[in-house]
Amino acid sequence: MEIGINKMLKSYHWIVSILTIPVFGLFSGFYGWIYYSTISERNGIWGNIYSYYDLTKAEFSSIRLIISLTLIGLAIFQLKYLIEKNVNRLNKTLLITLIFIGFWIIAEFYLQTKFIGKG
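and the corresponding structure tokens:
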């Protein structure tokens, strides 16, 4: 018997998971599109935005790919532990999610300080 399976999920487990899974799906699609546009050198803002942040194409696209894959992984694990009703693992996943969101916000603020307008 696995630890945490016998405990009941609380309402905040359901609420947080049900809210974050679609949001993570949306953001992973958005960041995945930025990755694809940068790698394929598409015309427009998403194809060459790496130059606005004074980064190389490989640096910028790898950052976007890591964010997208991490969001997909977090959403999958939240859904898995929600279906299994594994309270301990779901709590750990939600804590990792909060830490990741904190790092993500800090990283985006840092990139905004490097933004160089080309107009």
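(Above: one complete record from the training split.) The chain has a mean pLDDT of 86.
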